[in-house]
Write a structure and sequence with these properties.
DNA polymerase, domain 1; alpha+beta; 2 domains; five-stranded mixed beta sheet; Ubiquitin-like (UB roll); globular; single chain; binds FE2/S2 (inorganic) cluster
């Protein structure tokens, strides 16, 4: 490569050339993918692994639509660089139902009519799951705190809180 070619290369093009390999256990499956290191976990999971349940709402960590559980913790995957999760266990909404059977949270969301447009629901279910995995009998306040980072523009939250409480029962 000539000096002239090097100087015309933008930083974005340079990083696109320097791919890294990341490995995840995602929804119980081992996956490996080569990516540019500046891609977010959300982009890689949606675009490379083709798991599109997590949504991009804000892209700035404010809405929770992109929530995933990484090594037991609820995270906003639009703010995590994909290489930061290398070697991690990741759960997305696609991994919540087991053996064709809905998770109790999913069933209770249906039974309580807690879903309207659905855009926030993958994140809400994962926020509820992260809560119930660590606190199987949460108070209403604890449920509201657990979903405080997940915005819903449709439901008014009451039915979502009731559905999570019912799933705990
Ligand atoms: S898209 Fe990640 S928090 Fe909104
Ligand atoms: S159901 Fe529409 S944003 Fe929550």
């Amino acid at each position: 490569m000539t000096t002239a070619e090097t100087t015309t290369e933008t930083p974005r093009e340079a990083s696109a050339l320097e791919k890294v390999t990341v490995r995840y256990t995602i929804n119980g499956e081992q996956r490996e993918v080569e990516i540019a290191p500046n891609r977010t976990l959300l982009e890689v999971v949606r675009d490379e692994l083709r798991l599109t349940g997590a949504k991009e709402g804000c892209g700035t960590g404010d809405c929770g639509a992109c929530s995933m559980i990484v090594d037991g913790k609820l995270i906003t995957s639009c703010l995590m660089l994909a290489p930061q999760a290398d070697g991690s266990e990741i759960t997305t909404i696609e991994g919540v139902a087991q053996d064709g059977k809905l998770h109790p949270l999913q069933q209770q969301f249906i039974d309580h009519g807690a879903v309207q447009c659905g855009f926030c629901i993958p994140g809400m279910i994962l926020a509820g799951k992260a809560l119930l995995d660590s606190n199987p009998a949460p108070s209403e306040l604890e449920i509201r705190e657990a979903i405080a980072g997940n915005l819903c523009r449709c439901t008014g939250y009451t039915k979502i809180v009731e559905a999570i409480a019912a799933a705990a029962d």
